[in-house]
């Protein structure tokens, strides 16, 4: 690694540290969640946040948008939401010459950071409209393709408690999310901090500490972090071990898993490990980086079989057994 690249990464790491502190000044605790979201954002991926109501998922996303000086948009997914409510639509307008013509009115998806709140409450047709934008960074309306900005980050939320009247995302669409991050309930100390911040008269204003261009630059430079062949092979072995008929077959996996992770998971795992290593002050990827990121990269890509579902086996238990190789 060149000295110039090292200095650039050190400077951007300092900015990421300031970003975490700025978000932490509003969001009490949840340090691992904040770091995981930043890793996914830097990697250019999208995140599925899962947690019960009231844990600050919406506030986290809004605070993140303010701290990176990006435009923010919130979409509340409901069963009657239509694709045009997300992407936008053509409306009849009048030009300067008094001629009538259709003009494109952009929807809320045209923002830097988009919160898709309770994405599983919308119909598959509406879900696919957002997921197309996530994959292609563009939307097509009336035969015309409209490009989104270079920085486009989607955080979709799911409530694990209320599943009635929902439309679970198909596995192929879940695979398009870089990571699935679980938002835990705060500890007693964090809950006291939340009360102090939300029941007092003082209201803290978030400052922009990074630009969206800084995030894009950091993600691009992180790709140049070297990875030893042994570490690449380890990441591949973990992915193969999630398959019941793979080369690294485990008894636990054969018994409870129907399908393992996709090649997209291996890409996300290695890229996320590079970013995590840089944020830890290292310029080489270790096994610990791979193991740390495996749960959030794998959990939404592992499909359990009937026996696994019947015995309430969770994907995290599968990951735990796989990483324990």
Account of the protein in words:
The protein is an alpha/beta fold and 325 residues long. The protein has 2 domains: 1-82 and 108-224, P-loop containing nucleotide triphosphate hydrolases (Rossmann fold), CATH 3.40.50; 226-325, Orthogonal Bundle (Helicase, Ruva Protein, domain 3), CATH 1.10.8. It has 14 helices and 11 strands. It has helices at residues 3-24, 31-42, 57-67, 83-87, 124-136, 171-174, 188-198, 212-222, 229-241, 251-256, 263-279, 287-298, 306-310, 315-323; strands at 47-50, 72-76, 88-94, 100-106, 113-117, 138-141, 144-147, 153-158, 179-182, 257-259, 303-304. The strands form 4 sheets. A 5-stranded parallel beta sheet has the order 2-5-8-1-9. It has a two-stranded antiparallel ribbon with strand order 3-4. Helix 9 (229-241) packs parallel to helix 12 and helix 12 (287-298) runs antiparallel to helix 14. The two termini are 31 Å apart. The model has no long low-confidence stretch (mean pLDDT 87).
Proportion of residues in extended strands: 15-25%
Assigned CATH architecture of the largest domain: 3-Layer(aba) Sandwich
> Structural class of the helix and strand makeup?
alpha/beta
Distance between the termini: 31 Å
The strands making up the biggest β-sheet line up spatially as 2-5-8-1-9
Mean pLDDT reading:
87
The CATH superfamily of the largest domain turns out to be: P-loop containing nucleotide triphosphate hydrolases
CATH fold label of the largest domain: Rossmann fold
How much helix is in the residues?
Answer: 40-55%
- Specify the biggest β-sheet: 5 strands, parallel
Order of secondary-structure elements: HHEHEHEEEHEEEHEHHHHEHHEHH
């Amino acid at each position: 690694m060149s000295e110039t690249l090292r200095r650039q990464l050190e400077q951007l790491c300092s900015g990421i540290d300031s970003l975490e502190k700025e978000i932490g000044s509003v969001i009490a605790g949840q340090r691992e969640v904040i770091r995981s979201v930043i890793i996914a954002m830097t990697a250019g991926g999208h995140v599925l946040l899962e947690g019960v109501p009231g844990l600050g998922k919406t506030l986290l996303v809004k605070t993140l948008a303010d701290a990176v000086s990006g435009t923010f948009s919130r979409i509340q997914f409901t069963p009657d939401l239509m694709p045009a409510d997300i992407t936008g639509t053509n409306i009849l307008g009048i030009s300067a010459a008094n001629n009538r013509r259709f003009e494109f009115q952009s929807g809320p998806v045209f923002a830097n950071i988009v919160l898709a709140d309770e994405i599983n409450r919308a119909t598959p047709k509406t879900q696919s409209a957002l997921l197309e934008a996530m994959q292609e960074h563009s939307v097509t309306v009336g035969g015309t393709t409209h490009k989104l900005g270079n920085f486009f980050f989607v955080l979709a939320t799911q409530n694990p408690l209320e599943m009635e009247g929902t439309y679970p995302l198909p596995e192929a669409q879940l695979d398009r999310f870089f990571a699935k991050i679980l938002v835990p309930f705060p500890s007693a100390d964090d809950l006291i901090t939340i009360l102090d911040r939300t029941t007092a008269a003082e209201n803290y204003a978030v400052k922009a500490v990074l630009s969206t261009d800084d995030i894009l630059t950091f993600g691009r430079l992180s790709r140049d972090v070297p990875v030893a062949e042994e570490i690449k092979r380890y990441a591949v072995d973990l992915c193969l071990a999630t398959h019941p008929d793979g080369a690294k077959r485990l008894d636990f996996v054969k018994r409870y898993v129907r399908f393992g992770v996709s090649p997209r998971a291996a890409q996300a795992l290695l890229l996320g490990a590079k970013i995590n290593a840089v944020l830890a002050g290292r310029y080489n990827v270790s096994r610990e980086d791979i193991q740390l990121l495996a749960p959030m990269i794998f959990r939404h890509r592992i499909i359990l079989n009937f026996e696994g579902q019947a015995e309430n086996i969770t994907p995290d238990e599968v990951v735990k057994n796989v990483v324990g190789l």
